[in-house]
Amino acid sequence: MSKTILQAPKWSRAWIWLIVIGPILSVAGLILGFASAGSMCRSAVGPNMGFFELYGTFQGTAGAVGACEKSIAAVAAPAWTFIVLGLVLFLAGIVVRSVIGKRANAAGEQPFKKQGVKRRSVLQGAVAFITAALAGAAPAYANGNVRYVSASGSDGNPGSVTAPWRTLAKVRSAMASGELQRGSTVLFKRGHEFYGSIHMPSLIGSAGSLTIGAYGEGARPRLLGYKVSNAAWTPYSGNIWKLNIAANSGQYSGNTSEPSTNVGFLKAAGVIHGRKRWAISELAADWEFFSDSTNVYVRLGVNPGAGVAIAVQRDILRLASHTTVQDLYLGGTGAHGVATGGKNVLIQRNEIEWIGGSALSGTTRYGNGVELYVGAARVMIRENVIRQTYDVALSAQGTGTAGWTDITWDSNRIENCNMTLELWGKGGGTGFLRCRFVNNTCIDAGYSWAALIRSDRDGKGTHLLTYSMEVPVDVEITGNSFLGARDNYTRNSGDRQIPAGIVTHGNTIKLGAGKKIAYGVENPEISEQAAQWQARTGREQASVFAVSY
Questions:
Q1: Is 92 helix (H, G, I), strand (E, B) or coil?
Q2: What Å distances lie between residue 11 and 3, 96, 102, 110, 111, CA to CA?
Q3: Which end of the chain is more exposed for a tag (fewer CB within 10 A), N or C?
Q4: Please, what is the Cα angle at 335 between 330 and 338, to 5 degrees?
């Protein structure tokens, strides 16, 4: 015989459900609230600070705090709703039971007698109720809105881990349609290569971030911008060969649908060839190239053949607001590796290399590892490796009143880029507000693939570069290692001094013998005279200089 619960014969049995469901709701709210924000951030109902927020309090790392807060915000309301509602229901059950008992006694009735309501049924109903409530309140990621992409998949698949998508084009269309939106995740198979780019539309949805990452074992998935030549080169004139690199020409593989023919560099047998010319008549040495609206032309004594990787003008990733990008390899473009003017963006643990060289305007060439446009806010760029850029590893620049707010570059490793950090702004407005460059390791500025082929080489092999600083500036540069530079530690326009508002201190700066500390005749000091430069400028207090690199 089933165990039963005593129940009043004339009064509602609602108090049983209230007493059972109430604690379940509260416990569910506590679980959701403590767990959802992650171990490195505070939870929605936990202590006032988590690791990143504590770090941010002492170091001013506002981007880290923003990354935590947006995760917390997605679960705070449902967590507290469950907790409070559960307590209210439990107390209401006790009150209802007490009222039932008093009224029954006053009427001379037995207050509770056996009825056929099973405890198991009550609990099963309560569990079903809370499960449905949690499903409705959880963010999209928790609901399993995850899509997988593999080089062996098919765009006709549903995008599951067992039936993944295949191309970046499919990912772009899913973002445009809203199949991938805020709270969703798209994961690329480790060890696989994907050609093309992702320029994101404004994301659909009102909570959470879209995450782009990796799954499986092995090396980071590689997102590449190259057009890769087939054996389709034809003679043009003398030792000059041409290849049609217009979209879908059939003469190349890789990034076949990209319309750009603005070539930044060529890569053949692992060697970069970056000598871009501005007319066919200027092609004078092997591997010099020129490109027009249809073809790329290369001077070489033999047919260049198949397998020449051709980097054209297209950012690999252009990010919308509320986006996380992590654990990817991004390379092979004549433009930027990653670019964004968005808000609430996290870029972490990526490898970015072989960047830039396309024409920006006229004969000016460009290409940065991570580019932040005007309007970027609450952006964290951390633990990335950035190598071999035509221009700068990390840049925040542009014209406009929106400025850059709560930007943090933290614990990145920067190797062999022409410049490490670039800052410039015009247009007034907020300018740079609460921006920090901290704990980065920056090696061999000015020794990139493009260092000796640039037309504007004077002083450009530098770690810190500032231009046209016509906006308010609130930037701190501390805790970094700047190791080796072709020309100097810092190059600044105008009066050739680091702009007021950029605070530099507590860094380690190692330059070779005789290297300039700062560019320009206004700054005569060389690396052996670091103490004089510090005393004259008031810069790099508590920093360590060495002539040992």
A1: helix
A2: 21, 10, 12, 12, 9
A3: N
A4: 45
pLDDT-above-90 percentage for the chain? 72
CA–CA distance from 227 to each of 261, 333, 358, 365, 370 (Å)? 10, 10, 14, 19, 22
The rounded distance, in Å, linking the Cα atoms of 533 and 466 is: 18
Region label for 190, one of left (φ > 0), alpha (ψ between -120 and 50) or beta (otherwise): beta
Whether 68 and 55 have beta carbons less than 8 Å apart is answered as: no
Q: Give 195's DSSP letter.
A: E
Determine how β-strand 404-410 pairs with β-strand 364-365.
unpaired
What is residue 23's predicted lDDT score, i.e. its pLDDT? 81
Give the amino acid at 156: G
Distance CA 256, CA 417 (A): 28
Neighbouring C-alpha atoms within 13 Å toward the C-beta of 193: 10
Per residue in 323-347, pLDDT tens?
A: 999 999 999 999 999 999 999 999 9
Per-residue pLDDT tens over the stretch 493-523: 999 999 999 999 999 999 999 999 999 999 9
Residues, the chain, total? 549
Cβ neighbours of residue 354 under 8 Å, at least 6 residues apart?
265, 267, 272, 311, 331, 332, 333, 387, 388, 449
- What does DSSP assign to residue 30? H
Greatest distance between any 2 Cα atoms in the chain: 115
Tokens of 462: 């530098």
- The dihedral built from the CA positions of residue 7, 11, 13 and 15, taken in this order, carries a sign that is negative
Residue 281 DSSP class: G
Residue 234 Cα distances to 192, 230, 242, 244, 295, angstroms: 31, 11, 6, 9, 11
In terms of Cβ atoms closer than 10 Å to its own Cβ (0-12, 13-18, 19+), residue 248 is: exposed
pLDDT digits (tens, 9 = 90+) for 147-202: 999 999 999 999 999 999 999 999 999 999 999 999 999 999 999 999 999 999 99
The predicted model scores a pTM of: 0.76
CA distances from 455 to 280, 418, 461, 466 (A): 18, 13, 13, 19
